[in-house]
Amino acid sequence: MEHLLTSFGNLFTPLPFLFLFTGVVVGVVVGAIPGLSGGMVIALTLPLTFLMDSTNALILLVSMYVGSTSGGLISATLMRMPGTPAAMMTILDGFPMAKAGKPGRALGFGIFASFIGGLVSWIFLATLSPPLAEIAVRFGPYEIFSMTLVALMLISAVSAGSMIKGLLSGMLGIAVSMVGVDPASGGLRLTFDLTDLEAGFRLLPVILGMLVMSQVITDVVNIAQPIERLQTSFRSMFMSLNDLKKLWFNLLRSSLIGTWIGVLPGIGGTTAAIASYTTAKTFSKNPEKFGTGTEDGIVAAETANNAAVNGALVPLITLGIPGSVIDVLLLGALIIHNLTPGPLLFQQSPEIVYGIIAAALIANIVMFIFMLAATPLISKLMYVNRAYLMPAIIVFCVIGAFSQGNRLFDVWVMLGFGIVGYLMQTAKVSTGPFVIGYILAPIAEVQLRSGLMFYDASYLPLITRPVSLAFLVIAILTMLWPFLSKLKIRSSDE
Amino acid sequence: MLPLALVLDFMTDLSKKFPVGDLIFAAFMIVFGTSFIVASFSLPPPALEPVGPAAFPQWVSAIQIVLALIVIWRAITGEYKLAKRVEYRKRYDLALVTILLIIAYFSVLQLEWLSFQWATAGFVFFLTASLFDWKYSKLPIALGLALILGLGLKFTFTEILYLDLP
Questions:
Q1: CA-to-CA distance for A333 and A346, rounded, in angstroms?
Q2: Using CB atoms, which residue from A184, A225, A441 is nearest to B49?
Q3: Could you report the predicted ipTM of this complex, rounded to two decimals?
Q4: Which residues does chain A have within 8 Å of residue B109's beta carbon, measured at their own beta carbons?
Q5: pLDDT tens digits, A107-140
Q6: Which residues from A are below 8 Å from B39, CB to CB?
Q7: Closest approach of chain A CAs to the CA of B154, in angstroms?
């Protein structure tokens, strides 16, 4: 509690608050512009944080995360294009309501729902994280290995589209992470006698290529895509008390669904929004109204995707397991700042962990105020021609890729991964599992091989230690679940 | 004969669209996985623990190749409908121009033909102009953007943020 209060106090000093405010504003604007995403802006910002104090860097990045997740609703509602994937479900009711002449009402409901989702899930983040970290700090290498395995399995199971392609994407990420120095023996591996590969494929070039460059190429291909335009005004965005009375249960239920799905590693806001929207429709007295512009649809989708942000921070800061691709980037930020993600972070750098927790709440409040005040302006900004943005994004990518190691080789690596990422998008292969596999695989390998050294080359503790066994069982069930559910559907069809 | 028959089936059945993207990606994965397996054979045997440096790359690459083969099998034998018609023209030509300009930009930096600010200004001008299909009315804006980004970023990153630039 003391750490948390100190972190709140720190947030209200000028510099950290400036970073928080900047993060929210940039996040909301970027989230609102289709073709740009929270992941992109965070990846582009990572190199700028090199010289920053670690706590301030994390405050900035978390604020961008909160802002971008919320900003996506503006373009989803006014342009029928989700600014971020998590706003996908918001289109279903947000756009029809806006088109029916009530864009302000649609945005107002979305902004309020995002705020409530963020608040409820923050309570879980603040209360669950410290005790969970206290338990997790007793984990040995095999427990951490099994836990990481769960995350890797979940990623494959929930990857968008084909599961096989998701797995393939994850495997490519794992393979790429293995180039360079072998983490256990310290020897070189898979460098193909190229000196430049001895340092491996560095984090920033790979992430910038996979997430940003690939998206730029996709955007160039789709540059002629026509956009429907709607505008809104400030006054029309406020909700009445009656609206609140009607929607409070939906708000609460969607917050809980979003938080829970966020806590599960690898799933993230998009699935949370889908699950919450489906639940709201199932239990609604008027399910036929869903998809035609109902308040319940907007509230369910927006509450859950924002709740998932804080939910996903729980496994990230307590166990070092990312809940989504953006969480992977936050994990990368911790590594870049020489911090060890995982339960020990609570003991070694409490100011960072509590800084993240405090920033998640204040960023949510700032997001609410900023979006209410600035959405009419942002709704004009988001129609800026993407041809002006793309060259700037590419130049920022070059600077970002170069800055981690001061090598032009990394810039070429970024371009290579950009082209691979574009090919993956063309083949409908999600790049999310790649990024997560790339970050998590080294952790899994190091822990397994440390465990083997620690337990005299015995694999047995993997199943004799209860926590490790429990995680292994969850990992196996997670891997089998998609097959089992398909079998179940087939047998019920027959 | 079976694969040939399947390919012919695709070429004659108009209800299917050949998933070229899937095949390119899967082929890339097989080449990538095979090269890793071959490279991992030259790694030293395990010393401190029984897994060693080669095992993980070998397992991962083997799984990768199997999954890629499944993707190819599905691509050939799967039911594919014709792609949804898009209301706008996809600009693959512009994407190619963009990639070529990026390669030229990186090459100029690599060979040190121009300093960062001028290489960047040139790249931004040519790319912005290309993205606007070289409309005369947009060229002054492209030039302005190029100078702002080239000179502005150089100043910001070297004089304010103290970061090295290519």
A1: 16
A2: A184
A3: 0.86
A4: 398, 408, 411
A5: 888 899 999 999 999 998 888 888 887 787 778 8
A6: 189-190, 192
A7: 10
